[in-house]
Amino acid sequence: MGGEHKNDVQSAWFNRDSNDGASLQYDACITQSNKPSEPPHKMSQSLRPYLQCVRSSLIAALSLSNFASQTSERHNVPEIEAASSPEVLLNPLTVSRNENERVFIEPSINSVRVSIKIKQADEIEHILVHKFTRFLTQRAEAFFILRRKPVKGYDISFLITNFHTEEMLKHKLVDFIIQFMEEVDKEISEMKLFLNARARFIAESFLTPFD
């Protein structure tokens, strides 16, 4: 990521009006980097600006450091979860594609919580998203950064601490979240098509004796 773009992201991150509350609202058409997108997998043209904005925001947020708890001696806890020291919590950030798709990034000095709202066009997709995310959260220990309970108003949440960025490659963590966001819509669409095809087959089989 170019130095000029990095400065733009950091400036947008840390500079805000004192009356605008505790969060920032980003549109998907935020200034993009001149450098081509890193992930090798393809993405739709309509989704590209949204994912590039999320990527830039995550890279800026994942500048984490080891920080001991100020309330519990000899403990190091994710400050974004403990919320016991407001001075080490940074401004939360919302990257929104539309009212049904958005990402909520909550950074702190030693941890970042990333919550994702997955697109749900109808009741069937709502049920599929619920079942899919529930399946994943029940196996959260296998994903390391997956949070068992999502933040209220979102479908799935990730918690990245300074220990994760020390043990893993930071850009790979970002790639994982971006790829998850890209693939989850395809997965839900495929499940919906399979469900509709199965329902059609069952209905035809049930009505055949009455022909």
TrEMBL record:
<protein>
    <recommendedName>
        <fullName>Arp2/3 complex 20 kDa</fullName>
    </recommendedName>
</protein>
<dbReference type="InterPro" id="IPR034666">
    <property type="entry name" value="ARPC2/4"/>
</dbReference>
<keyword id="KW-0963">Cytoplasm</keyword>
<dbReference type="GO" id="GO:0051015">
    <property type="term" value="F:actin filament binding"/>
</dbReference>
<dbReference type="Pfam" id="PF05856">
    <property type="entry name" value="ARPC4"/>
</dbReference>
<dbReference type="GO" id="GO:0005885">
    <property type="term" value="C:Arp2/3 protein complex"/>
</dbReference>
<keyword id="KW-0009">Actin-binding</keyword>
<keyword id="KW-0206">Cytoskeleton</keyword>
<comment type="function">
    <text>Functions as actin-binding component of the Arp2/3 complex which is involved in regulation of actin polymerization and together with an activating nucleation-promoting factor (NPF) mediates the formation of branched actin networks. Seems to contact the mother actin filament.</text>
</comment>
<dbReference type="InterPro" id="IPR008384">
    <property type="entry name" value="ARPC4"/>
</dbReference>
<dbReference type="GO" id="GO:0034314">
    <property type="term" value="P:Arp2/3 complex-mediated actin nucleation"/>
</dbReference>
<comment type="similarity">
    <text>Belongs to the ARPC4 family.</text>
</comment>
<dbReference type="GO" id="GO:0030041">
    <property type="term" value="P:actin filament polymerization"/>
</dbReference>
